[in-house]
Amino acid sequence: MNKQFFLILSLLGCLTFSTAQKKKISLEEIWGGEFRTEYMDVLRSMKNGKQYTILNFMRSPQTSSLDKYDYGTLKKVETIVASGGTVPFFTSYTFSEDESKIMLATEVEPIFRRSRLGIYYVYDIASKSMTKVSDTKIQEPMLSPDGSKVAYVDNNNLYIFNVASKTAEQITTDGSKGTIINGVTDWVYEEEFAFVRAFEWNNDGSKIAFLRFDETEVPLFSMDVYGQGLYPFPYEFKYPKAGENNSIVTLHMLDVESGSISKVDLGNPYYIPRIKWMNSPDHLSVQTINRHQNHIKLLDVNAKDNSVSILLEEKDKAYVDIDDDLTFLPDDSFIWTSEGDGFNHLYLYNKKGKLKNQITEGPWEVTQYYGYDEANDKIYYQSVENGSINRDVYSIASSGKDKKRLSNKEGTNSAAFSADYTYYINTFSSATTPYEFTLHQVDQGKRMKDFKEDNELISKGRLIKDNAALLKKLEGYDLVPKEFSTININGNDLNMWMMKPADFDPAKKYPMIMFQYSGPGSQQVANSWLGSNDYWHEMLASEGYIVVCVDGRGTGYKGRDFKKVTYLNLVKYETEDQIAAAKKLSELPYVDENRTGIWGWSFGGHMSTNCLLKGNDVFEMGIAVAPVTNWRFYDTIYTERFLRTPEENPEGYDNESPFNYPELLKGKYLLVHGSGDDNVHVQNSMRMIEALVQANKPFDWAIYPDKNHGIYGGNTRLHLFTKMTNFIKENL
After folding, report:
1. pTM confidence score
2. CA–CA distance from 695 to each of 107, 194, 390, 479, 663 (Å)?
3. What letter would DSSP give residue 23?
4. Does residue 534 fall inside a structural domain?
5. Residue 590 lies in a domain
6. Radius of gyration over alpha carbons of the chain, in Å?
7. CATH number, position 545
8. pLDDT single digits (tens) 479-534
9. Closest CA to 11 of 460, 533, 546, 527
């Protein structure tokens, strides 16, 4: 057979894994935090561009401080505020626009994935005084630009708190659980459009734009909470499954001084996934999108009279992604990202919505937009220009000329720029190097008279923090590097990594287990540092397994067509690619073709189940954690983006639903779910279980009571991965 389909892309790094190392990683170490990496917490640039702030805190004992550092020296300038005395332990902070006041969050508790309740204080830097916003736990408080007021949501209603008078005014009165929500999002918006605060102050604090959600007609979902009491009780919330009614969402404008509220007529859009004020205090940008999510509009709302005009429209045969890249320049011209030419790139429009020019172009993707330096006409962004498994930081002129690569190490680079773009802090990691944080000076030439370039800062950076201690610790463990390669499957070169046992002998045969996620636009094959799952994979490799991950069709960062080929047929092509990859890999002389397994979580659990059933001649074992088993059970926004509604595309929903063909099961199957999963409901696994029972198919399953989609808390993760490990050892 041809063994040349492996193209080794990167085996070099700062760490060399030795086969002489003998200590094996244990599950207790993985889930006990033994290999935790050091990070820089909550770094934000001050508006002067010369200093940045970091939240430093310890959970035991509970102490926190907001500290200011100098970019040039990396030394602490001052502690702005610290817990103790009248200042409680705080876990997050935000400055007012003028940086005179700080919002401090305490006693924070989660609601869903992104939403939180908490007690909040306003800290006045000049007077060092603390003001409590509300005695009750509230949502999403936001300081006005001058720091004099705080807008927030309490029990689905919008309030404004006056800091000086310490009084609150209730703005809306119709909010109520299960019917009307003002100023924060409903469940499905929070999960799929990835935001919670649904109100925004304009630049002069005179107006607040907010969204109102009427979820009256959204079906109610109920799940049992078992708790510790004698009787379980239902937890109920509105959850629109595919094809069902969504909230009716409307845009409203509050005049802060008068207290008057007006509804903005947007022409009955189906979704309003983003609102953002322009630099002009009288103009609000609004993004709307239809139910199929293939036609997006960027609207300009004139706050003086609520008139609406269209800045741009974009259509796609499949779907259009929502992001946070929209940036207004000082004159309200704007930068927009689009896959219009087949790859995600940056575009510059004037304030009337006329295209000026495409800024970036090429057969690669922009993955993050950082900002625009007006003084030097430089745009900063991250891309996969240096290979789809890598990330690099670049600068480019708004004309698309004078592009420069700023990062200098191959792996995953991201940047946090100072407000004036004089400096940036680069975060770097690779598959062999844990996180490194370095300070760099932006090469701006003659930016200003008093600016002196430090060539070392420009080229190499100055180390702020690294994980050398973790690297030293890992030298004592039986670890192996990820071998990055490509494998040609179904006409596509798919990214792949492989872990082999440290004592690997090509003359022997090894069992192989595949890991994947495979969701649209996702990536698991990336040249970045190890996560918890990777350490578990390292442990499996030390037990004599070959571990493989392949990113098939539908995954991200390889262009529009590669990602959207799965449209209307979600999981079909993804399953075909994993089965074909397993077959090809089984041809390797050191892979035991009769001992092949696959596992995944969430979308990956759907995939591992499908692969085990439809690839029953290839896979002998599969593990599915919190899987979708029929997309009819999942939410509207995510599911319909890729499949349209069940009424329009029933085959797309049912042909890849594993509980419709349980008779195909031949291998060993472990199915795991948390009963408190508000995202992928345990209903998915219960339907799969019933189908397998009626087909008289043996399998193993586990339900974790009251655990959500992450299945964690206390000893839960250790128990779960112990069960998974034992299942693999017993069946593969």
Report:
1. 0.93
2. 50, 39, 45, 42, 6
3. B
4. yes
5. yes
6. 27
7. 3.40.50.1820
8. 999 999 999 999 999 999 999 999 999 999 999 999 999 999 999 999 999 999 99
9. 527
d(CA 60, CA 4): 53
Residue 699 lies inside a defined structural domain of this protein:
yes
CA distance 286 to 710: 33
Count other Cβ atoms within 10 Å, centred on residue 714.
Answer: 8
Buried-state track 28-58, b at ≥16 Cβ within 10 A, e below 16: eebbeeebeeeebeebebbeeebbbbebbbe
Question: What is the tens place of the pLDDT at every residue in 441-492?
Answer: 997 543 333 445 566 666 678 899 999 999 999 999 999 999 999 999 999 9
Give the Cα separation of 217 and 183 in Å (integer).
19
Angle at which helices 603-614 and 572-586 cross, to 10° = 60
Which residues, in sequence order, are bridge partners of residue 207? 255
* 637 within a domain of the structure (yes/no): yes
Going by the DSSP 8-state scheme, the letter that residue 673 receives in this structure is E
At 33-76, the pLDDT tens digits run 999 998 877 679 999 999 999 998 887 789 999 999 999 888 99
Segments in 123-274 forming alpha helices (H): 187-192
The alpha carbon of 508 is separated from its chain's Cα centroid by a whole number of angstroms, namely 40
How far apart, in whole angstroms, are the C-alpha atoms of residue 8 and residue 12? 10
If one counts the domains in the chain, the total is: 1
Q: Running DSSP on this structure, what letter comes out for residue 281?
A: T
Strand, coil or helix: 463: strand
CA–CA gap between residue 625 and residue 605 (Å, rounded): 5
| Nearest Cα residue to 392 out of 374, 370, 372, 377 | 370
Q: 10 Å Cβ neighbour count for 131?
A: 17
Tokens for 690, please give them.
């019933």
- List, as one string, the DSSP characters of 325-386: --EE-TTS-EEEEE-TTSS-EEEEE-TTS-EEEE---SSS-EEEEEEEEGGGTEEEEEE-TT
Containing structural domain, residue 713: 27-33+472-731
CA distance 567 to 573: 10
Tokens of 581: 């990859």
